[in-house]
Design a protein that fits this description.
Layout: H1 6-27, H2 32-50, H3 52-59, H4 65-80, H5 83-97, H6 102-110, H7 113-119, H8 122-132
């Protein structure tokens, strides 16, 4: 079992609440306040989980500058009051930031009994194969 420090436990809670508020804000027709709270909680939770220095190094790597600018720009656009445009920018930046992690996640999910068989269905397998292929070095 993985042992977590107290700050990492707080970060997991903040990140979880951030994802909840983001999802709930999108379900309520892109509510500005919920999306802003979700963004703040998600980013602060991430910094609690992996630490401030590692968070800074993750977001501000030279080859991730475009992804970081889209993600943080989307957060800023949501905070100033344009939630739909901001969420679109955030989602694009999120996929650019974490595209190196997707092949690992797809490989893990394929080993889970029920989910692995769902990912093998004809329409879903081509999409998952496209997401799961890694053509960039991270």
């Amino acid at each position: 079992m993985i042992s977590l420090t107290d700050s990492q436990k707080i970060g997991m809670g903040l990140t979880g609440f951030g994802v909840f508020f983001l999802f709930f804000g999108m379900m309520l027709f892109f509510d500005k306040a919920l999306l802003a709270i979700g963004n703040i909680l998600f980013v602060s939770g991430l910094s609690f989980v992996i630490g401030l220095e590692r968070t800074f190094r993750f977001f501000f790597q030279r080859h991730k500058a475009k992804a970081t600018s889209f993600f943080l720009g989307g957060v800023f656009v949501v905070l100033i009051g344009w939630p739909i445009v901001g969420v679109v920018l955030e989602i694009y930046g999120f996929f650019l930031l974490f595209r190196g992690f997707f092949p690992v996640a797809v490989g893990f999910i394929r080993r889970i009994p029920v989910l692995g068989s769902l990912l093998s269905l004809p329409g879903i397998s081509t999409l998952v194969d496209k997401i799961g292929e890694s053509n960039t070095m991270v």
